[in-house]
Amino acid sequence: MALLSLDPLKTQKPKPPAGGMSLGIRMTDDTDNGRKPGQELTAAWSKICETLRAEIGEASYQSWIKPMRLLGQEGELVRAGVPTRFMREWIQAHYQDRLAELMNGEGLEGELDVVIHQEHGAGVRLETKPAKPKTQTTETSAAATNGEDIGAPLDQRFTFDRFVVGKPNEFAYAAARRVAEASAVPFNPLFLYGGVGLGKTHLMHAIAWHIRQSRPGRSVIYLSAEKFMYRFVRALREHNTVDFKEQFRSVDVLMVDDVQFISGKESTQEEFFHTFNSLVDQGRQIVISADKSPSDLEGMEERLISRLNCGLVADIHATTYELRLGILQAKAEQIRVDVPLKVVEFLAHKITSNVRELEGALNRVVAHHQLVGREITLETSQDVLHDLLKASERRVTIEEIQKRVATHFNIRVSDMHSARRARSVARPRQVAMYLSKQLTSRSLPEIGRKFGGRDHTTVMHAVKKVEELREQDSSFNEDVELLRRMLEG
Ligand code: ADP
Ligand code: MG
């Protein structure tokens, strides 16, 4: 599911005030809808969802609340449907109290019953989702047919619809959407850059799909820089560079992926430079991707770099825990497999390198489940991913963690071992214990010993506390995430 919002992901969860609550959420598989929602109920429901939207942020709202459908009311029971068990569990775990409370505020005295709803199209939708692009569009113009010829095929899965948006990629996503939707060229070129497996190719294909669908007459060419070079070299060899130039210079949108490939390849760069200029002069759109920013690309001609810098440069950052969760959830739904929340959280914690690896891990877990027929659990997942987890585990030591955390919070390293209980030292110490548990393979007692001979239950408590705080306090969460990333290198 794509999150169409550009709001930053908010990690803060609503904290329901304690006491005075009589409502609970029942979670059943029952899909008997009871009475259809009346106008009043629908209005109250929309209001509840809107309030929650403001509280939890756009991204979480799009992921979890928007897909819920109000199905009806049966006596005191208000029933809402979600498409998967996973979503039901997630809502139960994260929004149960707050939803119940908001219902109460709207004078709905009964219970909320969240069910897995088979025909999920029915019921009251809050908004409609954009239509999925067709798998293939018939191209009519000659240029478009040409495009098919010189470009590379597009991956059907790489659509905007399936791109999960979070803080690390929201800017690149917004820019890509803008290019895809604009009638006049908004910036030229759009330069997307970021590390491997973070979604550059996905966004480029999404632009191409979108344009091919909304304006089938336009010729959109997507290809890798490598392929561009290969075509160019072939044209040189076959003495038909004129055709080559014609082909590339007559397209409406040219997208060249992984342009770092032509670093140090002078004649290809030269040809690319001319193609580039010719298209820009004609007001055609160019989209480029690379693993580095234009200025950091080595072995590129100055004039090309300055051209690349002319438009909009958008980077995709490393994933955050929240984004990884969102992506896993979306992927699990796409392949229609119920993956327990615990497993999803585990994967999001452990597979932090990039989205491709994350997808790979999920696919392995699911494939194992389907082949062997064993239920997906935390244990089976750990088993299946044994080698992968080991490889991603960098050998960071508890001492390194203590040092790093102490510096970050401006306390002495000796305070990691001391008996001082002041919040200003106790909290960083808890963070360090938590990170030791996350990033090393040390057991709780071992960790306790390294922290001034503390008991393993103290470590356990610290881990729980930090997990709680990460959920509640977004700036704390960012701190911890930052530390984790620095320590992982
Ligand atoms: P890059 O080109 O940056 O190396 P890709 O675009 O090939 O990365 O992405 C790698 C894989 O991860 C693809 O399968 C892609 O669909 C997936 N992916 C990356 N980012 C996202 C995202 N935000 N939402 C959904 N899938 C993503
Ligand atoms: Mg790529």
Describe the structure.
With 489 residues, this protein is of the alpha/beta class. The N terminus is likely disordered. It contains 21 helices and 9 strands. The chain starts with 24 loop residues before the first strand and ends with a helix. Helix 10 links the parallel strand 7 and strand 8. The chain has 4 domains: 102 residues, DnaA, N-terminal domain (GMP Synthetase, Chain A, domain 3); 157 residues, P-loop containing nucleotide triphosphate hydrolases (Rossmann fold, 3-Layer(aba) Sandwich); 72 residues, Orthogonal Bundle (Helicase, Ruva Protein, domain 3); 91 residues, Chromosomal Replication Initiator Protein Dnaa, Chain: A (Orthogonal Bundle). A 5-stranded parallel β-sheet has the order 6-7-8-5-9, with helices on both faces. It binds adenosine-5'-diphosphate and magnesium ion (MG). The site of magnesium ion has 4 residues, from helix 7.
Q: How would you summarize the topology of this molecule?
A:
Blueprint: E1 25-28, H1 39-56, H2 58-65, E2 69-74, E3 77-82, H3 85-94, H4 96-105, E4 111-116, H5 142-150, H6 170-181, E5 190-194, H7 200-214, E6 220-224, H8 225-237, H9 241-249, E7 253-257, H10 266-281, E8 285-290, H11 302-308, E9 312-316, H12 321-334, H13 341-350, H14 355-372, H15 378-384, H16 386-392, H17 398-409, H18 423-439, H19 444-450, H20 456-472, H21 474-488
Parallel strand pairs: 1-4, 3-4, 5-8, 5-9, 6-7, 7-8
Antiparallel strand pairs: 2-3
Helix pairs in contact: 1-2, 1-4, 6-7, 8-9, 12-13, 12-14, 17-18, 18-20, 19-20, 20-21
